[in-house]
Amino acid sequence: MDDHKSEDQHLVAAAQHILKALAASKAVSDDLRKTLLDFDIHLSAMSIVERSIKQLERKIKFAEGKIMTWKAKNSMIWDCGSKESSEYLEAVSEIQAAVHNLQSLNEHDKELLGRANGILQVAMAKLEEELVHILVKHKQYLEPESFANEAGSVDLVNPALIPDLKSIANVMFGSKYHQEFCQTFISSRRDALDEFFVVLEIERFSNENVMKMEGNCLNREIKKWIRAVKIVFQVYLVAEKRLCKQILGDFNDSVYQFCFAEITLSFVLKLLNFGEAVAMGNRSPEKLFCFLDIYEVLENLAVYVDILFFEEFGSFVRDEFHKLLNKFGEASKFTFLAFKNAIANDPSKARFPGGGVHHLTKYVMNFIKTLAEYGEALNLLLADETPADPEGNDDDDSHPLAGEFWSVAATLESNLISKSKLYKDVALQHVFMMNNIHYMVQKAKSSELSLVFGDRWLRRHVAKFRDNARSYERVTWGPILSILKQENAELNCTSSKENLKKKCKDFNASFSETYRSQTGWYIPDTELREDVQISISQKVVHAYRQFTGRYSSTIDEKWKKHTVDDIENYVLDLFVGSPKSLHYFSSSAQILKRDKSV
Amino acid sequence: MSMSMDGSHDTECEEMELFQRHVAERFAELLSCTDEPEAFMSIGWLRKLLDEFLCCEAEFKAVLLMGRDPFQIAKPPLDKLLPELLDRIIKSLDVCNAVSLGIDSLRNIQRLAEIVLSALDQTLIGDGQVRRAKKALSALLSAMLHEDKDGGITKGTERSRSFGRRGNKDKDRSAAAPFRSLSWTMPKNWSAAKQIHAMSSNLAAPRGNESSGLALPVFIMNTVLVFVLWTLVAALPCQERNGLGTHFQMPRNLSWAQPITALQERISEEWKKKEKKGTVGLLEEMQKMEKIAQWLLDFADSFQFPAEADKLEEVKAQVEELADICRKMEEGLEPLQLQIREVFHRVVRTRTEFLHVLDQAAKLNIPAS
């Protein structure tokens, strides 16, 4: 072959010599001379090409040696040190350049070009393997705990290897094998992401499974999921995107963005699917805190998601995330409404024994106490829907949630009033309302709730339960006090003795009756109980002392069943919740009226 | 609610007649679709199918909910039929998710096909290009035939399996990298075939005087739902399609059901044929691609440089077809995925709405306290 080439070269040289000679001859026309000189130039170019091709051939052969040696080996180039890897990359670059040059030369040496392309393909295949190897070997496994501390500065692949990965990328892209690079890179990173699921201890559940999960199990999974979602969006995916940019950032932006999207899209959707299933669950009031928890978390993560997926490639993910966020918002709103309706519709069937604090009151107040912790989230959700406040508690300084909470309290009060009507004894109705409103006020005074309810509401409701206390007194003790009262006109009446006797009897009967029923009534709050007892004492004991004192001369000891001290002590038995009765040894038909309170 | 019995009854009958007719028309149109870009079981056709489904669903909701007293849909036989439908909806969500993941694996196949295009769409085809193409083709065919198990995500072009006819001495066999097939797809024992089976059981046509009431649209909606999902599973890769049922108890005498029955029979035929060979799924683009990929692989296996001119002409033609398929996938896969997601969200919303109405009806039943 070389012989042929050198023969050709001789021929060319000879031809050029002849041409030059002819061109210099005076016998040749200008046109002809021009043609001859052109031809000469052509022949020169041919020589150059020939020389170039020879050069290329040499380079190709040299690089081929390197590349084919590695093909035969089973080991990895990048395990053998940076000298080997950079030499290899150099060899590839040579082949790459050779291909490029051969293609641009007019003289197409098809065989040589084919050979070069063949070698290039071998190199590319090897580089693919190396890529996988580096990505897997130098993957950094990170525990979720460590994520919490290093938000954002996490490296998913050993940073020392980034330059190598970049070199491989550059070479493969330069050889127009970018598709293989991306495909391999994306697959490897997807595997890493799937592994992370295992680290997060997230299991795969179908929608059906999730819908069937019971309370504790579901709560456990939700907790895990919330933790996962935070780590994934705030740390892991940020790091992943950075990795893509580091390796592929030299090319068009769309390249690294595309890779990032391909790596993460499926994973994120799978992650969100669990949330979708939870959002479809039943909407009983107990679920409200769960929905709000998730809503808060997603709301806080929205900004991360928007940044991570702001390009066109990521719009699908972004949309799905926001849809899910909205679903939890709706679920929360709906459940909150269900909660209010449950209060309003709580059935009042049986009288609540003793007139104490109803479980509905406790449930509601404790519920909203916990709810107040979600202030921010609720605020966002309920901002447009604050009901008008009928009681005029509203104030410019009101807490944003005040309206909603006042509304809940008002609904509760309303229902309690219905419940109170079940009691036939009006006095007990008042005691019941007093107890319950007092409880509401006590709860509302506590930390978070006091800020929400505000001073005005508190003052009004303190006034309310005091009103009820006074009404109770009026209904029960009013008549009894009027027994003990004496009209001036009767003072010196001859029948005053009879009168007084009757008064004593009436008093004893009424007091005993009241004692019998109202010892069974219950005021759970000791302070409130004392206040009521003291108030009763002050009036009744005082009146009794006055009555018995003033008419001590007229009143027979037999008529008086109790001393003043007795009365004082008996009052302390009221509202303790253990029914007692006073036993009289009177034989006359004192028909003790049936206990009206139960 | 205060309309006269006769008046409301007539409108109701009319609405239901219309609903039946529309369902029949929509599916008849799908049956007659034979031309590109909506050839039977192509991406375009599936998109049309989903469109029609969403229309049916919307009409169904209107028929059942608009202007209606909640009490009407809470009384028998709907008191049992509606919760069944809502339960089917939950099952269908898992199918939507599985199919959506399947589209991911199709996208992967598309990328591999695009590598083949890069390799072979050249004037000069030498050893290098052919080996490059062969690598991608092997990976592609492997992905197609094993998608249901591995989750379908091929690890680059690294495959230790060769599908060439020339023995198994693949000279470009690369050391199989230790990829785990740990792709988190559906739960481990979940099966699309089983899910569809569960959804189609207990699906009985209303009989007697029930067949003229609201039970009928509910039955129609159930049927449509099951049919559409079954079709998606037959067409697109998804976890565990083995044993996909091909026989449905379709009512023979109902006019609205005839186009659906015809479609179902046609798809069943195709499915049975393919099941014998191996489950590539019925998606038209995949069917075509499989043939082309196999042809090209055979070409690659028997390639010697330089190839004959007429052989190269054939290669060119195959490559052009492949490019066409890739184009269709590029344009259609994402919208298809979006549509499936739309179906997901819509049926969830429908379920919520029905639950809400049933809840209202239940409250109305409680005697005032």
UniProtKB/TrEMBL annotation, chain B:
Annotated membrane topology: Single-pass membrane protein
A GO cellular component annotation in the UniProt record: membrane
Keyword vocabulary terms for this entry: Membrane, Transmembrane, Transmembrane helix
Ranges annotated as spanning the membrane: 214-236
The keyword Cytoplasm is assigned to this record: no
Compartments reported by the entry: Membrane
InterPro entries per UniProt: ROH1-like
Biased composition (Basic and acidic residues): 151-174
Top-level taxon in the UniProt lineage: Eukaryota
Annotated segments matching region Disordered: 151-175
N-terminal signal peptide: none
Cited Pfam families: ROH1-like
Similarity comment text for this entry: Belongs to the ROH1 family.
Protein name in UniProt: R3H domain-containing protein
Species this chain originates from: Arachis hypogaea
